[in-house]
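Fig. S4 source data, part A: sequence.
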Amino acid sequence: MQEAHLAQPLWLRILQFPLTRVIVLGGLALSMMAWTESRILAFKDSPLIGVAIAIVMAVMVMAVYVAWGKLIERREVTELSLPGAGREWAFGGLVGARLYAGCVLLLMVFGMFQIEGPTFYTGSNFGMEQSVFALILCTITGVVLLVIAIRRGHMVPAPWNRKG
């Protein structure tokens, strides 16, 4: 398998490296989100246009992701398949709601639910998503989900370890 990996051109091996994926796709997604935000602000008096802009951006990001998976990583992008998508979306929404409720609960327990609490804990004007409690709860949840994925064998092998 190592020989097959070495037979690939250097540029492809660089693009298949996981950190490159994070930098390139993440940078592209963030720049598209910034562009979308500026367009939405330009049409702040027309919320339906803002929704349409956000939907177009989401479809474009997914299209770029699928193209990257097929052309660069040379794999089927099954994580965006439609079968079971509704169930997974609903589960994700429930997990997100529970994480948000957990943050509220922790802020209430520590007596900092009011916006006057320390910025470090409450997230200040940005909202609870920037609070230390959100960081801790979401990190723990991410680690738990990673362990579940590893135990179920749902991890995609690195490009140089894939067969075929």
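Fig. S4 source data, part B ends here. DSSP finds seven helices and no strands in the chain.
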